[in-house]
Design a protein that fits this description.
The complex is a heterodimer. By secondary structure, chain A is of the alpha/beta class. Chain A has eleven helices and ten strands. A two-stranded antiparallel sheet of chain B has the order 1-2. Classes of the chains: A alpha/beta, B mainly alpha. Bound molecules: adenosine-5'-diphosphate and magnesium ion.
Chain lengths: ~260, ~300
């Protein structure tokens, strides 16, 4: 559905952040991209959605396709029209707009008001809590509600592919579980294909079908989610467990690169 | 009503109608700032340009006023779009100062070219509204002030509706809130920037007509732009309702200052009283009365 083939991304013409990344997001499934802070996960999503331009970033090598349409180099608002939506890290709701106005803005690409109305009702059916808050300024919603709104707003363009950037960030585990449950339902019922970026590997691998691990601008590990869950490196560095049950520093992860070969 | 109260009432009503006419011009400034973060120092010159165009058109006997109004609206909309495209878009992503400098330069160019193209004499811009004052209680207002106030109110209602109820208006507010996220919603941000400048063109056209009719049209018409600053600082740079209230406050304060203080100091207080108020308000509310502040949740 969404194919990223060996892309390089450069900021400000000189800062090389992605160094040959390939990811395949399968239709009707959740693919997760794991990695620590600064690995390049958000950059990957921005390269896909096209908002990279507004940060002086550029895809300098490789290709990105939705189906067989090539989208790298396209402008963000055109990519959205092809059925791709991005949920930003840190939620980024339009603070000064009400919940419902956020959704209306999200439905900008729909052709008429009644289509927008229908999509709003669809979003409310998945996130009833948003309906209760429909007239409230979104800047005053709770963190969990804002995350629901950010996801709902992305659904408003009726996308086929959704990019989710760290939806668990700063939320209580119960809420994270609730939101991931809804995402899971959305994927099955609305036939979405999702690329889920997370640092919270436990939660991500619980819902994902397939996973990638990114480090320093490269993919260092890839495999089906259940296999990754059992992988001892993942257990140690992302699930925070090692043989003795204690935690190890993230700095010890360099031997990933050797492990990669065994998995693929 | 006592004579004192009648005097005060007349001053307030007079100030309010002038104030609404300030609001109309300030609206142009606010629309642009809200959507694009650009500070337009040429707002007064926009008004002057529109006034010059209308005055010239109706100086040809054969051009009816209605046609002149339609033409000036079209020209000012085109001017707004063109300006965004040619001058401002290349400055996207540059420091705010670059845009400020560009609008200051534009203002100078317009003030310089205006008289060259349209002639330097002061032209009358007479509207078919007679000169019979409109009497409201103890106050009587020149008909142009009544017309100006009505035009301002109509435009405020129209824009309020647009931003609250129309999908385009909501999209424009989304752009104002967060450009990058708005793009990802499929919103063509640059097109909305252009639309904001075109809307500033529309209100400038209306401002040029009513202010031109009141003051006469020449390069000095651009000076009404100076009143935009106390208005938008009082009301908040990005608040439509704030422009309305800010205009009313400035107009009323000016009028009261002229009525009560001028007799003691020999005149001129009306020109700086709004600025004194502006500074006082800034000390208490740095965002203006209705300005948008960053929402901080605890
Ligand atoms: N706009 C930018 N300009 C320059 N460098 C950036 C920019 N955005 C991110 N980076 C750099 O790119 C690297 C990857 O960042 P990011 O993609 O945000 O990582 P992640 O989402 O995995 O935490 C970091 O080193 C970061 O400093
Ligand atoms: Mg990130």
């Amino acid at each position: 559905m969404l194919t990223i083939n060996n892309i390089e991304v450069v900021y400000d013409r000189v800062i090389l952040v992605l160094k040959g990344v390939s990811i395949d997001v399968r239709e009707g499934a959740i693919t997760t991209l794991l990695g620590g802070n600064g690995a390049g996960k958000t950059t990957t999503l921005k390269a896909i959605s096209g908002v990279l331009h507004s940060e002086r970033g550029q895809v300098t090598k490789g290709t990105i396709h939705i189906g067989d349409r090539r989208i790298d180099g396209m402008r963000a608002h055109d990519v959205t029209r092809l059925g791709l939506a991005q949920v930003f890290e840190g939620r980024r709701v339009f603070e000064h707009l009400t919940t419902e106005e956020n959704l209306t803005a999200g439905g900008h690409v729909q052709k008429d008001g009644s289509a927008v109305r229908q999509s709003i009702d669809l979003v409310y059916s998945y996130f009833p809590r948003l309906k209760e808050r429909r007239h409230q300024h979104s800047g005053y919603l709770s963190g969990g509600e804002q995350q629901m709104l950010a996801i709902g707003r992305a659904l408003m363009s009726r996308p086929r592919v959704v990019l989710l950037d760290e939806p668990s960030l700063g939320l209580a585990p119960m809420l994270v579980e609730e939101i991931f449950g809804i995402v899971d339902r959305l994927v099955r019922q609305e036939k979405l294909s999702v690329l889920l970026v997370e640092q919270n590997a436990t939660m991500a691998l619980a819902v994902a079908d397939h996973g990638y691990v990114m480090e320093n601008g490269r993919i260092v590990l890839e495999g089906p989610a259940d296999k990754l869950r059992d992988n001892s490196d993942i257990k140690e560095f992302y699930l925070g467990l090692n043989e003795g049950g204690g935690r190890k520093s993230y700095r010890d992860t360099k031997h990933y690169k050797r492990r990669k070969r065994w998995l693929s | 009503m006592s004579e004192d109260m009648e005097f005060t009432f007349a001053l307030i009503l007079n100030g309010a109608s002038i104030g609404l006419m300030y609001s109309l011009i300030a609206l142009g400034f606010v629309l642009v700032y809200k959507a694009t973060d650009a500070i337009n120092f040429a707002q007064g010159e926009f008004v002057m340009l529109a006034g010059l165009i209308v005055a010239m058109l109706i100086s040809f006997e054969s051009v009816p006023l209605a046609i002149a109004v339609v033409v000036v609206l079209a020209v000012m909309i085109g001017f707004g779009f063109g300006l965004e495209r040619v001058v401002l878009r290349p400055l996207l992503g540059r420091p705010v100062v670059a845009v400020i400098m560009a609008t200051i330069g534009l203002a100078a160019v317009l003030r310089g070219l205006g008289p060259v193209i349209f002639g330097s004499e002061t032209r009358a811009l007479s509207l078919p509204i007679g000169d019979e004052p409109v009497v409201i209680g103890p106050a009587s207002l020149p008909p142009i002030q009544v017309l100006g106030a009505v035009v301002a109110i109509v435009f405020f209602l129209a824009f309020s509706w647009f931003f609250k109820k129309s999908r385009m208006g909501v999209a424009m507010r989304a752009v104002a809130d967060n450009q990058q996220v708005a793009q990802a919603m499929g919103i063509n941000v640059e097109r909305y920037f252009a639309l904001a400048w075109a809307m500033a063109g529309i209100v400038s056209a209306m401002g040029g007509i009513v202010w031109g009719s009141m003051l006469g049209v020449d390069v000095h018409l651009a000076l009404v732009g100076l009143k935009v600053f106390p208005v938008v600082i009082l009301g908040g740079l990005d608040s439509i309702g704030g422009a309305l209230v800010g205009g009313l406050i400035v107009g009323i304060v000016e009028s009261l200052a002229a009525g009560y203080l001028d007799p003691y100091v020999g005149g001129g207080t009306k020109d700086f009283a709004p600025y004194v108020l502006m500074i006082l308000v800034l000390m208490i509310r740095p965002y203006g009365i209705f300005g948008k502040r960053k929402i901080e949740r605890v």
